Amino acid sequence: MYAPGDVRVEERDKPAIIEPTDAIIRVTSACICGSDLWPWRGLEPLAAEPMAMGHEYVGVVEEIGADIRNIAVGDFVVGSFFASDNTCEICRAGYQSHCVHAVPMGSLGTQAEYLRVPLADGTLVATPTRPTPEQERSLLAASDVLGTGWFAAVAAEAGPGKTVAVVGDGAVGLLGILAAKQLGAERIIAFSRHADRQALARRFGATDIVEERGDEGVARVKELTDGLGAHSTIEAVGTQESMMQAIRATRAGGHVGYVGVSHDVSLDGIELFFSGVHLHGGPAPVRRFLPELVELIMTDRITPGEVFDLTLPIEQAAEGYRAMDERRATKVLLTF
Ligand SMILES: [Zn+2]
After folding, report:
1. Beta strands in 76-124 (DSSP E)
2. In angstroms, what is the span from residue 163 Cα to ligand 1's centroid?
3. Which residues, 6 or more positions from 331, have their beta carbon under 8 angstroms from its beta carbon?
4. What's the gap in Å between 83 CA and the centre of ligand 1?
5. Ligand 1 is a single-atom ion; what residues have CB below 5 A from it?
6. If you measure from the C-alpha of residue 287 to the centroid of ligand 1, how many angstroms do you get, rounded to a whole number?
7. Whole-angstrom Cα distance, residue 160 to residue 14?
8. Residue 2 Cα to ligand 1 middle (Å)
9. What is the pTM of this model?
10. Each residue of 12-67: pLDDT tens digit?
11. Ligand 1 centroid, distance to 147 Cα (angstroms)
């Protein structure tokens, strides 16, 4: 990305092993994230000009550093948007996105044919067999949007007997619905005003749809829950309105799992104090969930790859950004 709205596909040097803990993978598919749209829209500065883009990836291991033990050349692998050693105290507690050695994959740019993965032993998870094309799409979703939606559902303590509200009908919100359903939630209320996304939300497990937003949306959730609000709310947008909607839609003692990257969100202390709501979120430790997600996908028990509604060759990446920006696509998959 050279500037907001200016994405180009160019030849770059093929990455090489730098550290003995690195691996080089041939990326077989990558995708465009809702968070890639923040700089595209000029709402977030570019970290470099031009900046290599992308942080989601699956592919085949081409080369490994001397210290790699857990993966082998030829393995099909999926990793998260943070490289992590998976051995430090923070990782072992399940917070790999905050690893003391974390490397953001967005700084390397995964929308590319080849990728250097730092800390590859801790970062990558190999599949037991070569995935089918459908499974590959779902594994790519696991790299971020599914893993993030899953963390949001876990942070919101979605589970049996719970009513879960989901703010945001982008890929993360939709897969938060899938996660809540898998975790056993009894009732799942999706906020959405787009017919196609409502349909996917229902397919993933939503039991109720609320089209209203803000305090009107909160009022609808209260109506549906005997005036109490949801036990668990997933916030998957990251704006002031969506965060307040999530907190206000949650009953006292309930939990909000927030994973939309917060932009200019500020919380009023006195409202937070009296809400009695638990807040937990941030960049999802996707690596914590990857082994389980890979298992669910490779046995065809979940199909999160359904969120991809536009597939383009990498040469047309700029069109992919435009399609997501203009909401003509929910999630764009890039092929090589
Ligand atoms: Zn770590």
Report:
1. 76-78, 82-83, 103-104, 114-117
2. 33
3. 31, 32, 141, 145, 170, 171, 307, 308, 309, 310, 324
4. 9
5. 84-85, 88, 91, 99
6. 11
7. 48
8. 32
9. 0.96
10. 999 999 999 999 999 999 999 988 998 999 988 988 889 999 999 999 999 999 99
11. 18
Residue 284 C-alpha to ligand 1 middle, in angstroms? Answer: 14
Give per-residue pLDDT as tens, 108-154: 999 999 999 999 999 999 999 999 999 999 999 999 999 999 999 99
Question: How sure is the predictor about 7, in pLDDT bands with cuts at 50, 70 and 90?
Answer: very high
Task: Please say whether the beta carbons of 116 and 18 come within 8 A.
Answer: yes
Q: Which helix (H) or strand (E) holds 279?
A: strand 278-281
Quote the Cα angle for 127-169-77, to 5°: 10
Structure tokens at 36: 């890639």
Both structure tokens of 325:
């920006």
pLDDT at residue 25, as a whole number: 98
